[in-house]
Amino acid sequence: MANQPEPVRDAKPKYTQLFINNEWVNSSSGKTFEDKDPATFEKIADVQEGDAADVDKAVKAAKEAFKLGSPWRRMDASQRGRIINKIADLIEQNTQLLASLECRDVGKPFVHAVGDVQKAVNVMRYSAGWADKISGKTIPVDGEFFTYTRLEPVGVCAAIVPWNNPIALLTWKVGPALAAGCTLVVKPAEQTPLTTLHFAQLCKEAGLPAGVFNVIPGYGPTAGSALAKHMDVDKISFTGSTEVGRLIMKASAESNLKKVTLELGGKSPNIVFADADLDEAVEVSHLGLFFNMGQSCSAASRTYVQEEIYDQFVAKSTERAKKKTVGDPFDPKNESGPQVDGMQYKKILELIESGKKEGAKLMTGGAKIEGKGYFIQPTVFADVTDNMRIAREEIFGPVQQIIKFKTIEEAIERANDTSYGLASAVHTKDINKALTLANSLRAGTVWVNTYHAIRPQAPFGGYKESGTGREHGEEGILEYCEIKTVTIKVPHKNS
Amino acid sequence: MPNQPEPIRDAKPKYTQLFINNEWVNSSSGKTFEDKDPATFEKIADVQEGDAADVDKAVKAAKEAFKLGSPWRRMDASQRGRIINKIADLIERDSQLLASLECRDVGKPFAHAVGDIQAAAKELRYCAGWADKISGKTIPVDGEFFTYTRLEPVGVCAAIIPWNFPLALLTWKVGAALAAGCTLVVKPAEQTPLTTLHFAQLCKEAEVPAGVFNVIPGYGPTAGSALAKHMDVDKISFTGSTEVGRLIMKASGESNLKKVTLELGGKSPNIVFADADLDQAVEVSHFGLFFNMGQCCTAASRTYVQEEIYDQFVAKSTERAKKKTVGDPFDPKNENGPQVDDEQYKKILELIESGKKEGAKLMTGGAKIEGKGYFIQPTVFADVTDNMRIAREEIFGPVQQIIKFKTIEEAIDRANDTAYGLAAAVHTKDINKALTLANSVRAGTVWVNCYHVVTSQAPFGGYKESGTGREHGEEGIHEYCEIKTVTIKVPHKNS
Q1: Which stretches make up the Aldehyde dehydrogenase domain (chain A) (predicted)?
Q2: Three-state SS at A192
Q3: N- to C-terminal Cα distance for chain A?
């Protein structure tokens, strides 16, 4: 993108209703909910609130659109790809509005919101390219048979999208689902529905057939739960907390055993060896934690530093955090905005207090920022030990933990001593340390001398309680496929 | 195998204890359970009964064997393959004893038990070949990075094995798990533990390191449940009823979100068009239902016959069922043995009664066979309609349903009108009918002019409530892998 767009400070959403069968409709109940700006506490808009009855309509529409013989099922795979590319084009054309809406909804700095919109475009283009390359195989089975596999679309997919990177994470699910030929019902987070709603209109404009893509804004316990339990939903993909991930899996078990993909929480270890480039490691570790106000499932929330460089690292990290500018996300001088809502804000402050109580050394920050908006001071704790709550529980806020270690074996053990397993990083110049750590850490992603490098090309997802399944890469596409094996009797086979 | 082994009628198991860490031990509680022969009601042996405490020990052993740096983790992948091939050799060496034990335990005709043992050896050989071919990729991501994926073993795997093909289905899970480098705790069905226990000794003989393979004989609600809920089990693979499959998924959601593979029930449609080879279709359909006394998850339990040939088909199928020889499974003249236990026996007879009550036309059979053993008469119902219980519920017994249809569109609709989706078949000579049906029926396996062709090379598993995940083929191996993405910052990348 050649030119950075200018922010539209008072951007108003054009679409605030439910999107079912390519039409904008009100909720069955007539209820609405307020969508607020966490930097100013102002209401951005009233959004129609969907519940189980609306989910039912949307699923019916998605099921109809998935029927054998429907326009979507009869379409060439390459044409699906063209439509997905067209949606990418439209996102790009609407960058200014989408980034401004995202900035108001989430509170993330405007330039990061622009980055998110660009990422959404990239994911759609990547997925578009896969559409006509989703291949089964022919297989040399024993006996007089001809056997092949087909990768069919799994069917009606529910996608529950979180509030930390709304439009970007929406495309992680929608891109592959459409590429594979599925139909969708999406529930955006209630804190941040606006860009998903605008996206729906872009799908219609791009020529996506009615019923293929539907959006039900609403709450988890009502709309989200209805999707998770629905007997006509073939698959659910959820990004959010581990706690809710469990509910989703249980709901699948109690309904129709729908396929489940979960992208959950993390407490990712970030290991800095004495031979690392110190300044680079400090900066990368800082961004690894503080990016998006700490609201990343893959946040570098346990920074293990080898003892030889520990004091220097703590000093430099503290200085870096002190320099962080926090305020109005539309003002380009601010690196951080507010936390997304009151619930997160309270939880983070409570965990900060636990850090103080349990004896961590507060180097900077440690309190809220007075005034309007959910702003928290960038906080650094040193001398953290593994048993402290701030070292075990996911904070999802601007709070960095720095922890001392001695040997590589110890680093591996302590890094793996968690029920999470989403991401990890190692900072070193030594090839043996890099590869040993990379192979030993039980996490879906390992970064070496970098952080938050997530790309549509490479699979992303959790070990252990950080989730099940992968998004991105070929694996992300396959998550939306169901494999069918066809075996045909033949008179005389030859190899 | 050139020579068929002779059956050992009174074959006694050598191993009846728990197998933990390459040692045979008694259960913690000291309890045993009786393993009975369903053809004679005689006790074959007393087997040690494991419960949660024993599961705990086994999981500890499996976890220890999976630790970084363990012999199993340090072993070349090709060496894992060699060990798996060695186990296959030992299965073949002991095939006479194994087939005799299987025949006593399940009640299946001896020749079929021999076939099961051969299938088990073949399965292991197939998986052995995969061990050093489980490959990640290098991926051309955007930016100055070098990115690769590794397919790591998912970890400690629980395998719960059913009673219908004990040794064969054991190898479906064990072969892939060992090839991928996982460790296992297996719970065989309480009705049929003997061949799994003998297999454990063969693993030890083949030098599978201690703790890599463990067996806890016992019951579902105790030992099975303990495995499903265990916080140190990384993955569970279950073959059995849909009802228990739900419990397994819930247990995962309530414990540590362990990965879940489920191979569940079915009500598979078997569609015969007027242009099919009639005699071949009758025989294949008969075999598709009655094989293994109807005790197959893939049984051809809804046979749809096009109206032009319906009467002939019913007449020939009835005649074929009347000719079926049922009795002592060790006697080579018998095509069928007994059902596996009293619970199944009662359930099947109850469903037969429902068929009569709901108005299906009983052509032959329809009652138990008097005398010792759980023997049921081969039963054929004609004029079955889709709403009858015998057309909707899984019977898992020697009861064939024949149903009339008119058009191909109707056949597809009615075939797909089920919550199950495990297998399906179509009998026709017409290429368009064959491919249309194959592509339209929502089932994990579609057979054309054949049935029950399940091979190690091609993926097998369920759509919808018939399960999640695939066994066999490359996909079956990947079920035991966890994908890790490693991204390394580089100074200057080139394509």
Answers
A1: 24-486
A2: coil
A3: 51
Q: What is the pLDDT of residues A241-267, one digit of tens each?
A: 999 999 999 999 999 999 999 999 999
How far is residue B466's CA from residue A188's CA, in Å, rounded to a whole number?
Answer: 30
Residues of A in contact with B247 (CB under 8 A): 253
- The sign one gets for the Cα dihedral B196, B199, B200, B203 is negative
**What is the 8-class DSSP label of residue A5?**
P
Q: Give chain B's radius of gyration (CA, Å).
A: 23
Maximal CA-CA distance, chain B: 81
Which stretches of A90-199 are assigned E, i.e. beta strand? 138-139, 145-153, 156-161, 183-188
Other beta carbons within 10 angstroms of residue A221's beta carbon come to: 11
Q: Which of B170, B172, B178 is nearest to B196 (CA)?
A: B170
Buried/exposed A321-332: b ≥16 CB within 10 Å, e otherwise: beebebbbbbee
Is A263 one of the catalytic residues? yes
Neighbours of A401 (CB within 10 A): 26
Asked if the interface predicted TM-score (ipTM) of this complex is over 0.95, the answer is no
| Pair A479, A278: CB distance under 8 Å | no
Q: B460-475 burial by CB neighbour count: b if 16+ within 10 A, else e? A: bbbbbbbbbbbbbbbb
Residue B59 DSSP one-character state: H
Q: Is A107 helix (H, G, I), strand (E, B) or coil?
A: coil
Phi, psi dihedral angles at A390 (to 5 degrees): -70, -15
In angstroms, the CA B131 to CA B128 distance is 6
Q: Which of residues 204-263 of B touch A (CB under 8 A)?
A: 231, 234, 242, 245-250, 252-254, 256-257, 259, 262
Question: Which alpha helices (DSSP H) does A310-417 contain, by range?
Answer: 310-322, 342-357, 389-392, 408-416
**Residue B273 and residue B418 in contact, taking contact as beta carbons nearer than 8 Å:** no
First to last CA, chain B: 51
Neighbours of A492 (CB within 10 A): 5
All residues of chain A having their beta carbon less than 8 Å from the beta carbon of residue B465 are 256-257
Question: Which residue type is seen at B337?
Answer: G
What would the pLDDT profile of B87-122 be if each residue is shown by its tens digit?
A: 999 999 999 999 999 999 999 999 999 999 999 999
Tell me, what's the pLDDT at A1? 47
User: Closest-CA residue in chain B for A260?
Assistant: B468
Kindly state the percentage of chain A with pLDDT values over 90: 98
Beta strands in A321-435 (DSSP E): 361-364, 379-382, 399-405, 423-427
Amino acid at A372: K
The enclosing H or E element of A23 equals strand A23-25
List of E strands, B191-280: 213-215, 235-239, 259-263, 269-272
A11, amino acid identity: A
Residue that is written with structure tokens 């495309």 in the block? A171
Q: Could you tell me if A329 lies within 8 Å of chain B, comparing CB atoms? A: no
> Which residues 253-312 of A have a C-beta within 8 angstroms of B?
253-254, 256-257, 259, 262, 264
- What residue type is B423 in one-letter code? A
Alpha-carbon distances of B68 from A377, A435, B18, rounded to whole Å? 40, 14, 26
Find tokens 């001695």 and name the residue: A406
Of B152, B150, B147, whose CA–CA distance to A453 is shortest?
A: B147
| CB within 8 Å of A266: residues ≥ 6 apart | A297, A298, A299, A301, A394, A420, A421, A422, A423, A462, A466
User: Would you tell me how many other CB atoms lie within 10 Å of the CB of residue B311?
Assistant: 12
Q: Which long-range contacts (CB under 8 A, 24 or more apart) does A380-388 make?
A: A380/A314, A380/A317, A380/A318, A380/A321, A381/A355, A382/A314, A382/A318, A383/A359, A384/A302, A384/A355, A384/A360, A385/A359, A385/A360, A386/A414, A386/A417, A388/A354, A388/A355, A388/A358, A388/A359, A388/A360
Determine whether B432 is exposed, middle or buried from the number of CB atoms within 10 Å of its CB (0-12, 13-18, 19+): exposed
**A182-201 confidence digits (pLDDT tens):** 999 999 999 999 999 999 99
